[in-house]
Amino acid sequence: MDFETDTMNTQYDAIIIGGGHNGLIHAAYLAKAGKQVIVLERRHLVGGAAVTEEIIPGFKFTEFSYVVSLLRPEVIRDLELPKHGLTILPLPSTFTPLANGDYFAAWDDHDKTRREIYRHSPKDAEAYDDYSRQMARMAMAVKPILSMIPPDPTSFSPKDLMGLAKLGGHAASLSEHDFYNLAKLMTMSAADLLDEWFECDPLKGTKSASGIIGTFLGPRSPGTAYVLLHHYMGEIDGAFRAWGFAKGGTGGISNSIANSAKALGVEIRLNAPVAQVITRNGRAVGVALENGDEVHARYVVSSLDPKRTFLKLLDPNQLPGEFVSAIRRYKIRGSSGKVNLALSELPNFTALPGEGPLHRGAISISPSIDYIERAYDDAKYGRFSRQPYIDCILPSMIDPDMAPPGQHVMSCFVQYAPYNLEGGWDDAKREAFGDTVVDTLAQYAPNLKRAIIGRQVLTPVDIERITGLTEGNIFAGELALHQLLFLRPAPGWANYRTPVGNFWQCGSGTHPGGGIMGASGRLAAMELLKDWK
Amino acid sequence: MLKGTPFHSRTLPLNESQSWRRWSGFLAAGSYELTHEREYWAVRNAAALLDVSPLYKYHLSGPDALRLLNRVVTRDVARCAVGQVMYTPWCDEHGKVIDDGTIARLAENLFRLTSAEPNIRWLHMNAVGLNVKIEDVSEQIGALALQGPKSRLILNACADKNLDALKYFRHTTAKISGIPVTISRTGYTGDLGYELWCDAKDAVALWDALMKAGHDYGITPTGILALDVARVEAGLILLDVDYTSAHVAAIEAQKSSPFELNLGWAVSLDKGNFVGRKVLAAEKTRGSAWQFVGLDIEWKNLERLFLEEGLPPQLPTTTLRASIPVFATGQQVGYASSSCWSPILKKYIALAHLEAAHAKPGNLLMFEMMIQHKRRYTPARVVELPFFNPERKRN
Question: B316 partner at 20 to 30 Å CA-CA among A43, A90, B115, B346?
Fold first, then answer.
C-alpha cells in the first residue's frame, strides 16, 4: 500500500445521501449484495431523526423519535441487528391522567387492563378485546403490503399485474366482514372509527392519538383511521402492536444499523453535506458536497424527503414539469414538536401517587377526542395548542443508562405545533411553547416544575434545521391516502426510481412510509439490485 | 406445606402474581410481576435480585476435605485456590452425571459445595477413611443472586469494599450494612453477576440493604421464569430438565456423561483417581455417543408454517421444558430439552441432545413444531454454546 496516496476513494457502486435509518438500511442491503457503498451524512452522527444526544451532561435524550414498534423484523434478521447492539426493551403500559383527578390506564396484563376499563365502562372493557383482535387482523391483512413494491393499477406491465393479483388474492382471502372493515379503516376518521366501538372518553382520546401523530389533521379528519392502523402494524417478536423502547434511545437503533452496515463494508462519511446531485445526459453520476468535493458512483440514492430530494438536490429543470408540481403539492406539513426534560426526580402524578408501573410506560395527555380536536383547532389557525396532546415516556426508568442514578430523562412528544406558526417561530415563542408543555403536564404532576434540571424544546423549525426533514414532518410526508402505496411520493414514481436515470429514492417519503420501519430502505435496495443486472 | 426461604417475609408481599414454584421443597417465586418480561430484562439490562436459597449447600472441612472433593467431582479441586470458585459435575462409577454445582474454597481446608439435589449420603459414602467433616448448611445460609450489568455498581454502593477487582469465579468476604457476607462472582445467567451468601438470620436485612442500594440502578426482584430464559441463552444445563441424575434414571438411556453434556472441559482425567474416571477415560478415547449443543431455529420457514395456517408466529415466551424431537433426513437424531424465544437475540433457541454424527456446528436439522395441532418440521441450525456471552460477564 502506498501511504503517500491520502486521497479518498471517489468512485463507488452507490452513493446514499443521508445517514438516517432508511439510508443506512439501504446501504447495508446493497453492501450485503457485494456493492461498494458510501453513505454521506450531513451531521456529525448517523441516525437522522433517530438519534440520541447528551444535550445536558449525563442525560441522554432520545431527541426526536422515541419509541420503536414498526421496525421490520426481516430487517432486524437480515442485518443481524441484535448482534450489532439492537436491544428492544418493553414499554408495556399507557397511563392517561384526567383533569378530575382520576386516570385511565392500559396495563401490561389483560385482566388488569380489563378491570381498569371496566371501572370506566363495562361495555368498553369487552369492546376493547374485540377491537384489539380486529385491529390485529387488519394489521395482518395489510402486512404483506409493507413487504412489496406497490403495484401501479394503471400499468399493464407483468410485474404490476402480478403485484395487483397478489394484492387482490390477498384481499379475497379476507372475510367479507374484514374486507368491509378494511375499506372503512382506509377512509374513516379515527374519531368515527372509535365511536363505533367505545363510549369512554379517555379511552377514545388516547386511542385516537395514534391516528393524528405526524399528521396535520385532527381526530375527526377523514383518513386518520388509516394512520391509526399504521401504528398498529408494528410487531415485536411476532406480536402485533407491541411497542418498545430501544436501549440507548432511538440512536441505539441507528447505531446498530450503522454497525451492521460497516461490518458489511459500507463506508460512512460524517460531516459531509451534499450540495447537489451531478447529472450527465439525464443520468446521475455522482454528487457534489458542500465543501466542493465530488464523489462518483454508478447509482445515487437519496434517503431525504421528496421535497429535499427533488427540489433541492436537483435543478427542477432536469425533471418533468408535471412531476415537479406533484412534488411541490406533496403534503409534508410539520405539526409536532418535542420537549426533552432532565429531571432530578420522577414526576409524581396526583391521580396515582408514588413511583409505579406508570413510570415505565407511556404517559398520554389525551383525556378525550374533543381535547385533541381542540388542540388541532389552535393549529389550524396558526397557533400551537394551548392544551396540547402530549405522549411522554421516561427512558431512564426503562434503561438505567439514560440518566445518572436516581435522576431521570423525560421525552415529551407534543402535538400540535404548526411549522407555519402565525408570525413565525422565534426564541420567545419556542420557550412559550416549552412552558405550555410543562404547564400542561404540571396540572397532573405538580412536582414536575421543581424537578426540571434542564430542558430541550424542539419546534418543527428546529426539527427541520437539525434533521433536515422538510417542515420537521416526522413521516417525511403525511400518511394521507392520496400519498400512500403507488401514489407515494408521486403517481408513477412509487417504485423507488425517479425521472432521472440512476437516481433513486429510499426514504420514508416512499412506500410504505414513516416511522422507524426501514421497509422503504430495504424494498428500494431490493428493487435497485434487480435493476443492476 | 412448602417452606419459605429466609427471605420469605420479603418475597411474599412482593409477589404480585402469587406464582410460586417449588424448588427443593421451598417456595420460589415464578415471577413477582404478572409477567416475567421485565424481570428478564433486569437480568440483561439492569440488575435482577433472585432468592437462590433453596440450593443445597455443604461445608466440607478438615485435612482431607480436598481429597474427598477430588475423589467425588470430575474437576481438579487442587487447582482451586482459596478465594476461587469452580463449577463441576460429579459422576457415578459408570461415569454418568449425578449432579452439578459449584465449589468455593473458603479457606485452605474449608470448601462450600452447592448442588441441585441432596448429596450428603453420597459424600459420606465417598468419605470412608478420610478425615473430613461434612456439614449440611443448606438452611443456615441465605443465598441471593444479584445478576445483570448494574450488579457491580450496586454492590460497590453498599458493600464496605470495592468489588471491581473481584474476578470471574472468585469470591471474597465483605460487609453490607454491617452484615458479613461472602460474595462470589458467579451466577446462572451468563451475565455480569454475583451471588451473596449470608447467615440466614441476616437474610432480611441483607435483602433490604440491596433493594435500597439498587433502587437507582433498576434492581428488580426476579423469579425463576426469567432465570430459566437467561440460563438457556447462557447454555447452562438444569438437572431434571436437560439431564437426569444417574441416581434417578430408570434406564441407561436416561443417563448422560459429562462429555455428553458439553462438560468435557470440566473433566480432569490426569488429576488421579476419582469416581467414574476409568469409564470417562475410555469414553474420551472412544468418543461419546451424544453431544449437547445449541439449536438456532430459523425464522423464515417457521413464520411461513404459521402463515400457512393464517396465524402469526406463536413462540414460547417462557422456557419450554419439554422434549422436542429433532430429525435429519426423516430420521430422529436427537431431542431438544429446553427451548425458548430469546428476547435479546431475537431468535428461537433450544438446548439439544444430538447423536454425535449430527452435532457439528453449522449442521442443518429439522425441528418439530406443533402448529395448529399439526406436526410440522422447520430447519434448525446447530450452533456452539453459549448463545449469549457478553464481554461484561468476565471483564
Answer: B115
8-state DSSP, A312: I
The listed CATH number (3.90.800.10, 3.30.70.1400, 3.30.70.1110, 3.90.79.10) that belongs to domain B57-136? 3.30.70.1400
Q: Among A431, A8, A400, A273, which residue's Cα sits nearest to residue B46? A: A400
Question: Which band of pLDDT confidence, cut at 50, 70 and 90, is reported for residue B39?
Answer: very high
Q: Which of helix, strand or coil describes residue B381?
A: strand
Per-residue burial over A475-485, b if 16 or more Cβ lie within 10 Å, else e, is: bbbbbbeebbb
Say whether residue A356 is in contact with chain B using an 8 A CB cutoff: no
B37 vs A90: CB contact, 8 Å cut-off? yes
Q: Is A509 exposed, middle or buried (0-12, 13-18, 19+ CB in 10 A)?
A: buried
In this complex, is the C-beta atom of A391 within 8 Å of any C-beta atom belonging to chain B?
no
Give me the residue from B44, B45, B315 closest to A238, CB to CB.
B315
Say which CATH class B8-55+139-222 falls into.
Answer: alpha beta
pLDDT at A1: 39
Helix (H) or strand (E) holding B368: strand B364-371
pLDDT at A3: 42
Collapsing DSSP states into helix, strand and coil, what is residue A431?
helix
CA distances to A88, A140, A516, A518 from A253, rounded to whole Å, are 9, 24, 9, 11
Q: Assess if CATH 3.50.50.60 describes domain A11-50+69-87+247-331+479-532.
A: yes
Distances from the Cα of A449 to the Cα of A358, A432, A436, A439, B304, angstroms: 19, 15, 12, 8, 52
Per mean pLDDT, which range of A146-150, B47-51, B141-145, B350-354 is the poorest? Answer: A146-150
- Residues B252-308 have pLDDT tens digits of 999 999 999 999 999 999 999 999 999 999 999 999 999 999 999 999 999 999 989
* DSSP secondary structure code for residue A393 in this structure: E
Helix or strand run (H / E) with residue B123: helix B120-126
Grid cell 424448588 is found at: B23
Minimal CA–CA distance to A496: which of A29, A11, A34?
A29
State the CATH architecture for B252-256+289-387: Beta Barrel (2.40)
Report chain A residues whose CB lies below 8 A from the CB of B299. 73, 77
User: What band does A240 get if pLDDT is binned at 50, 70 and 90?
Assistant: low
- Return d(Cα A462, Cα B277) in angstroms, integer: 72
For chain A, domain boundaries: 11-50+69-87+247-331+479-532, 122-242, 336-416+422-458
How far apart CA A470 and CA A307 sit, in angstroms, is 7
Question: pLDDT-based confidence at A234, cuts 50/70/90?
Answer: confident
Task: With beta carbons less than 8 A apart as the criterion, state whether B151 and B47 touch.
Answer: yes
Predicted confidence (pLDDT) per residue in A293-339, tens digit: 999 999 999 999 999 999 999 988 899 999 999 999 999 999 999 99
Model-level pTM greater than 0.90?
yes
Shortest distance between the Cα of A187 and any Cα of chain B, in A, equals 26
- Whether A241 has a pLDDT exceeding 60, the answer reads no
Q: What's the rounded Cα separation, in Å, for the pair A93 and A357?
A: 8
Q: How far is CA B249 from CA A122, B97, B254, B280, B355, in A?
A: 54, 10, 6, 18, 19
Distance CA A187, CA A183 (A): 7
| Mutation site, B32, B346, B392, interface A, largest A CB count within 10 A | B346
Q: How far is CA A182 from CA A187, B58, B368, in A?
A: 9, 65, 35
- Which backbone phi and psi does B387 adopt, to 5 degrees? -70, -40
Tell me if ipTM is over 0.90. Answer: yes
A259 Cβ contact partners less than 8 Å away, ≥ 6 residues apart: A84, A85
CA-nearest of B245, B233, B344 to B294 is: B233
SS3 B107: strand
